[in-house]
Design brief:
Elements: E1 3-5, E2 8-10, E3 19-21, E4 24-26, E5 41-45, E6 54-58, E7 70-79, H1 82-89, E8 103-111, E9 123-127, E10 135-139, E11 143-145, H2 152-156, H3 159-171, E12 180-182, H4 188-199, E13 204-206
Parallel strand pairs: 12-13
Antiparallel strand pairs: 1-2, 3-4, 5-6, 7-8, 7-10, 8-9, 9-11
Length: about 210
Amino acid sequence: AEGSVRGLRVGPSLENEMVLRRDNLHIARLVSPFELDRVPARLTIARKGAITGLRLEPQGEFESELLSSEVEVEVRAVGLNFRDVLIVLGALPERFMAELGSDCAGTVQAAGSSVRHILRRTPCFGLASGCLAAYARTDARMQVAKPAALSFEGATTLISTWCTVHVGFERISLRGRRRLLLHAAAGGVGLTALEYAQWLCAPALCTA
């Protein structure tokens, strides 16, 4: 389109979206800062407050040895939560700030000496702080073996949502014929809670 933005005249272009920052006109392009197929990478926050502050950078070696109770996971998929968005925006209190990513699925790259339920090369899924990376380390109790019928991507949708609902329903001792008042039922946790309640034959009154 041809037009003017704050006095800057722009010639005909095939671009349908541009950003003017001071005297520079920016056009979105997907580029790789390095060879992702050869170098492990991780997503970091260079500047909080906007998604534009995210940076993809090479992931170096872990600074410490793998603990006997830990596993190292080669990440195949990550489930994004609203908490991750709040971390990027810097909208959480400092005590709740953490590395990006918590729900992941992948393959066990290494297992500590005391880990028995999942072994090296076992497909797994669970919690791992900072898992928006090629590799992540976590307490082995936070990971379980992934069923073959479940995809890596599908596994990441189960972790925070189903765990949250399960713990919540246990605390209120939800059983069949008990009525459930469910707010924000259109969200991830809400949809899971509604499905769980139906399994328990518990009638639910919902708000979106």
